[in-house]
Amino acid sequence: MPEIRLDSKPLNFPFWAGILGSIVEIKGGQVGILDLNALRTEFSRNLVPSKVIKEEIEVEQWDLIGIGGLTSTYNRIKTLVPIIRKAAPNSVIISGGGWATYNPDEILQLVPDIDIICIGEGEETFAEVYDEINNGTRNFEKVNGLCLNNKGKYKFTGPRALISDLDKVPYPAYHLFETDIYFKYSSLPLSPESFFSKRRASVVWERGCPRGCTFCSHNGMSRIDLQNIYGSGDRKKGELLVRQVDKENNTFQLPARWPTPKYAVDNVKLLRLKFGVDFVSILDENMTSNRKWTEEFCQLYKNEGLSEAVKWGTLGDAPSVATYPDLVKTMKDAGCCYISFGFESASNKVLNQDIGKGQLQIHEQQTIDAVKKVGLTPITTFMIGNPHEDINDLMETVDFWIRNRIEINPFICTPYVGSPLYYNYKDYLLQQYDEKLKLVNELQKADEETIEKWKLAALDKFMSECGDATQYTATVSQYFTIAELFALKQFMYKHDTGRMLKMAHHRYDETGLNQWKHDEKWTKYCPVCIAKEELLGYRIEISK
């Protein structure tokens, strides 16, 4: 498990490693987890030294070594894999997760020491890879859902259907986790209960999401993701292969899936019994979107006596709460202490044209009102730098913040690999890392093979920077530069509409570009417009 977010504490268990560890133990194998994200606390929260990692790996003769993570871990994994290979030259190295699942062929070129990449959901695929190694056959070509590295040449095996019954997925092997380290950092400032937690655990049950946000991806674990993977961003093309897989496996792969509420509640009971957990962070992408499941979970949670013993918090979406506001009270009565919502923007134009979540500002307002009504504090996230977002859209958002007394430092829209934004703007993104790609597009003076090499090198630079959405990578904004976004971001955080609009006037006077021209409705916030009106009034008075 690579280190993540060095500016923060290790907050959440490495679920994927724990689940795969359980699979190995169920099969009678021996397994360990080297959790660098937890162990970094022994090194002032910095990266674990290469020497320490090498010594840890060399303790045993490993048959199979797995490493994975989100796109934000790309740069670290690229460094770790050669260390692993040197320490374990005869081991099979398998990887998966969002950092590699969308473009495994490119990842194998950039990180050639990897032997196998698992595409999408990993439990069944990993189990079959383990069996091939354990049986001594190593016929990985018959295992669906892989991209194989054959001496520098890659080969895809057949596609794999998503798991239809998530109750069959074993709980993580918690005894393999560095639980003492994670419990040490239990406090989470999202509610009084999470802040004062002494033994907080984290869980993930939902896979995928029913919303179709353009900036989001789901690690290959939803129908939408598989469409993008199989179609290289062309969802219609990818859907043809998804349907073929459904037909062959008698399945219908959904955009979002959950285990039964009983599976989830039993998971919390296990954590309470084994570790005395007092708070659970449910990191499902969108719990409130499945009203029926959430209501059944809450009822069972109360029936099992957990609502007072183990408080919890989760994530939700505005359209579901706006439609069923009573769901928030149901959740609170079952021990829920916070729900975090991704509002993204308060501009209806941006929400419709750029984000595609299926929500409007009215849904966001109704959600805030519903959360406040039951006595919880609304928690929201926003982002700026969406493709067609102009100064008026940003003013809609900051005006919404002012009216609702929201203080927030917005993210900058990051087109992570696998998201629709990435596929739609891939060439534009890569050009920001190699000016040759922009120029050659205009001049057409390079052969295709050379251009592909430039693109791969540019992709390497882009993915290496994808560590933190509060910082900048490439931008998909068609209107603002990165420098302009950072200035606007700071003004918005401070509700400094005056400086925002003064900047807009200055840039409009310089460029004449319409994205800087603000609507009349924002005159009340604009010191330039107010000053002009006052001067006009003064001149009229003088002329009398």
Report on this model:
The chain starts with 14 loop residues before the first helix and ends with a helix. It has a 6-stranded parallel beta sheet. A 5-stranded mixed beta sheet has the order 1-2-3-4-5, with helices on both faces. It has a two-stranded antiparallel sheet with strand order 7-8. The protein has 23 helices and 13 strands. It is globular. It is 46% helix and 10% strand. The protein has 544 residues and is an alpha/beta fold.
The pLDDT mean sits at 94
What integer value in Å does the Rg equal? 25 Å
Strand content: 5-15%
**Major sheet strand order:** 6-9-10-11-12-13
Q: How much helicity do the residues have? A: 40-55%
Structural class, from secondary structure content? alpha/beta
Largest sheet: 6 strands, parallel
What is the general shape? globular
Low-pLDDT segments: none
Separate helix tally: 23
Question: Would you report the number of β strands?
Answer: 13
Give the terminus-to-terminus CA distance. 77 Å
